[in-house]
Design goal:
Strand order of the largest sheet: 3-2-1-4-5-6-7
Number of domains: 1
Radius of gyration: 18 Å
Oligomer: single chain
CATH superfamily: NAD(P)-binding Rossmann-like Domain
Largest sheet: 7 strands, parallel
Number of strands: 7
Distance between the termini: 49 Å
Strand content: 5-15%
Number of helices: 7
Helix content: 40-55%
Order of helices and strands: EHEHEHEHEHEHHE
Length: about 240
């Protein structure tokens, strides 16, 4: 019997990849043998600590700036010659009622969750087409049916807009062989998670009886970007233990 072949190394860009779910996902690709680039905006200390681990493929960038997004992708191409996978793990969170939220809150959530995604994908579109690659965007569980939200309406609205973009990009890019999907984490406590994530009352409502782990999300991300999911596009995969807010 012949030895199993090792999957070819890919060039992967994980935006927001120095903390939390983004870092777990980036490390999953790294363990697979891929060349992984990660970005940060404000987490300089975390990024510095990760420089050697990611072979100095660590980039400071504000992806709400379209020009900065293009420069980022140019640097990835200059370093490794191509881009096979884009994982966008950026998106601020905010809870609270609509009555108490100000316009500034919506502007920030839309910038962080939607504008950054638009800029990142626009910058990566051409190299992803050349590689017939894949893109993955992080949404949030519970968007199905566009139900009203008592405490997270603005955040859910921003992520719902992102999900429409994902499904639309999937339609546009299918003729070019590029797959675009979304991953919807549920409750996954980690040091950088929002306070709500650590609420034991929410934990008790998870059908599978436990909170999510970082590796649950990372492994799902690797699957959606792999050849095993080669016929999957325009989909949103909940990774939530059956929980929905």
């Amino acid at each position: 019997m012949s030895a199993p072949t090792t999957p070819a190394s890919r060039v992967v860009l994980v935006t927001g990849g120095v903390r939390g779910l983004g870092l777990a996902t980036a490390r999953g690709f790294l363990a697979r043998g891929d060349q992984v680039h990660v970005t940060y905006r404000t987490s300089r200390d975390a990024a510095t600590a990760l420089s050697d681990e990611f072979s100095r493929r660590v980039h400071a960038v504000d992806l709400s700036d379209a020009r900065a997004a293009r420069t980022l992708v140019e640097r990835v191409i200059e370093r490794d010659g191509r881009l096979d996978v884009l994982v966008h793990a950026i998106g601020d969170y905010r809870s609270g009622t609509l009555e108490c939220a100000g316009r500034d809150a919506w502007d920030e959530l839309a910038r962080s969750n939607v504008a950054t995604a638009l800029n990142a994908f626009d910058a990566a579109r051409a190299p992803l087409r050349a590689a017939r690659g894949a893109a993955l965007f992080f949404t949030v569980s519970g968007l199905d049916g566009l139900r009203g939200k008592r405490d997270t309406a603005l955040y859910a609205a921003a992520k719902s807009a992102l999900l429409v973009l994902v499904r639309s990009w999937a339609l546009e890019e299918a003729p070019h062989g590029v797959r675009v999907n979304a991953l919807a984490p549920g409750i996954v406590p980690h040091p950088h998670a929002a306070d709500d994530t650590h609420d034991a009352r929410l934990h008790a409502r998870i059908p599978l009886g436990r909170v999510g782990r970082l590796d649950d999300v990372a492994q799902a991300a690797l699957f959606l970007c792999s050849d095993a999911a080669g016929y999957v596009t325009g989909s949103e995969l909940p990774v939530s233990g059956g929980w929905s807010p």
